[in-house]
Each structure stands twice: as structure tokens, then as C-alpha cells.
Amino acid sequence: MKLAVMVNEGPYQHQSADSALQFTKAALEKGHEVFRVFFYHDGVNNGTRFGVPPQDDRNITVQWSELAEQHNIDLVVCVAAAQRRGLLDENEAKRHGKDGNNIANGFRISGLGQLIEAGIQSDRLVVFGD
Amino acid sequence: MENEGGIKKFMYVNRKAPYGTIYALESLEVVLIGAAFDQDVSLAFLDDGVYQLAKGQDTKGIGMKNFSPIYKVLGDYDINKLYVEKESLEARGLTLDDLQEIMYEDEDDDWEEKPSIRVVSAAELRDLMDEQDIVLSF
Fold this sequence. Notes:
The complex is a heterodimer of chains A (130) and B (138).
Chain A: E1 2-7, H1 15-29, E2 33-39, H2 60-71, E3 75-78, H3 79-85, H4 90-95, E4 107-110, H5 113-121, E5 124-128
Chain B: E1 9-14, H1 23-34, E2 40-45, H2 69-72, E3 82-85, H3 86-91, E4 103-106, E5 112-115, E6 117-120, H4 122-131, E7 134-137
């Protein structure tokens, strides 16, 4: 089955961020295709590489980056939600005159149209939220 | 999954009050962007989400933007199915009169102005959700 995943909560604050990651891993293991993972609301914070969780805890962002590299999945962060919350890539940082960027490997910033398209193109859109 | 002529049924489910969290505003942003994709779109309002459509919102005291006027222009984006759950209204002592009047022009009926808000029971809303291809919950 072709799946799309939407992640609406930030890492560590809400288990839904973990659940989305575990679900995506499990779906890939079962041989399903993951068309796209779309990060919205505080979910965009899953895409910052500046998070430093304690050594003995899981690192959600790093796991997403690894998953993207292994399975070539499209991790998309909503641009409007990201701008509000200070998540930037190189282009966005330049465009808004900010002195750095913090997006993690494997993530890219794009618009909400990518979410709607994921819904249209996939057999199921699975939403993880509060 | 049924997908007649490439059109899917999208329902945006709004369950939270308009200003305590950002869900309502960011849900509306998805609805507006999504309108460009020519899908079959409806919105559902239940639980505290019914307050999103409340009349006479004034946000001066909390320093936030009052985005409630945007619901009134959804008809211009061909979004004219706004389902409000009856039980959620009743639990909060609200009636249809407490909500904004939101109209659309029905192109199949000589552009007659009709109300977009439809009050439905929880059971009816359940059946509507069951018909959808995509349910986005906010």
C-alpha cells in the first residue's frame, strides 16, 4: 500500500511524534511504500538538527534522518509552520536575513500543497496528532 | 480506495477552541491552500471546535489576530459544507444563532445564496466521516 504520514506534534513533548516514527518504520518493514511524511504544527520541530536529547534517550530527529537515507523517503516540513517556529534551511535563512539554519539531513521545507498532494496520491493518509 | 475522476473527499475535523492553541488557525491555512486542488472538501466542527464559528469574536485583549472573518469567505473558494455537531453545540449551551452567518452561492441553483453551516447529529457526522477518503483532524 502507498502511505502518507502527517506528524502534528513536536518531539519528546508528545508521544505522537514517536508513534509516527515507529509506524513509518513498521510500514517500511512490512514492504509498504511511504510516499511522503509531512510535518505540520509543532511537528516541524522534529526536523531540527540542533536538538540534543540526553545520551540515554532516543534521538527522534536522527532516526528520521537515518530512515530517509536508508529508504529514500520524502520528509517535508511545512514552510509556514516552520517560519513561525524558527526552523530554517539555507535558502530560508538567507531569504529572511537569519544568521544560520537548523534543518536536519533528509528533511526539506516546502508548502502545504505537498500535504494535499500526498493525500491525493496515496492510498491512505495517516495523521499523528494530540 | 474509490477515487472517481481523481477527486477525493477531504474532511477537515476541527475539535479545538480558536485561540487556546494554534490548531484552528493552522487548520484554516490548510483548507485555504487545499482549495486550489479542486477536491471535494468539507469541514466538521465538534467539541470546543464549534467555538471557531462563534459570532462576534474580539481578540484585542489577548493580542492575537482575529481570523474568524476568513470563514465567511470560504464560499468563494467553493467550500460550502461546514458541518457542526449538534451535541457539541448543546453541551455548550449554544445554538445556530450564536454562530456567524456563512453563505455561499449555489452555482447549480441560479447562484442562490444558501447557508454553508449545516447542524448534524453525532450519528450523521459519523456517517459523513465514513464516506471520506481523507480525514484531517485538528
